[in-house]
Write a structure and sequence with these properties.
The protein has six helices and six strands, in the order E-H-E-H-E-H-E-E-E-H-H-H. The chain has helices at residues 19-31, 45-49, 61-73, 111-124, 128-145, 150-163, and strands at 13-17, 37-38, 53-57, 77-80, 93-97, 100-104. A four-stranded parallel β-sheet has the order 2-1-3-4. Strands 5-6 form a two-stranded antiparallel sheet.
Length: 167
């Protein structure tokens, strides 16, 4: 597995599917700031080729397999919800606290464990972490502007976390 955080600003993402599964994926993408293009069925090859990432949810496995193969042939990364053999990547369990993003993954083997870990993290990292991240970010920017080295800035962040009793 290669964990990567993608910047949604210039990302060309498509979503195709049906029902509640598609709606869950649409909500997940919107929450991440991704403007996913809802694709019609059947999806034309030219439209697939205009994408970088494709999410498929709520389609029968045969349709999903065909769509994934066509997208992959066009150089598009594919995620078919709950069908690991058809996925180039999977989506971990996610906890957001403003810009703080915590994830848990089992490589798709045990999604229930990922979910349980996310719930445990939610207990440890409550909504107050949105403000804490902003405070830490301001402090870090100040230290960088003062010319401190990355190592010293990192040490200052750790000391601030301890001093504030946050960790």
């Amino acid at each position: 597995m290669l964990p990567v955080i993608l910047n949604p600003v210039n990302l060309k993402v498509g979503l195709v599917g049906q029902g509640a599964a598609r709606d869950r994926r649409a909500a997940l993408l919107a929450e991440a700031g991704v403007e996913a293009r809802l694709l019609p069925e059947p999806v034309p090859d030219a439209l697939l080729a205009s994408l970088q990432v494709l999410f498929v949810a709520g389609l029968p496995e045969g349709e999903s397999r065909d769509l994934a193969n066509r997208a992959r042939a066009a150089g598009v990364l594919v995620n078919v919800e709950d069908v690991l053999p058809l996925c180039d990547f999977h989506v971990p369990a996610i906890l957001r606290r403003g810009d703080l993003l915590l994830t848990a993954s089992t490589g798709g083997q045990v999604p229930g464990l990922s979910r349980a870990l996310r719930e445990s993290l939610a207990d440890q990292f409550g909504p107050e972490w949105t403000a804490r991240l902003k405070e830490l970010g301001l402090a870090r920017a100040k230290w960088r502007a003062e010319g401190l080295s990355m190592a010293q800035v990192s040490q200052n962040v750790r000391e601030m976390l301890v001093r504030m009793g946050w960790l």
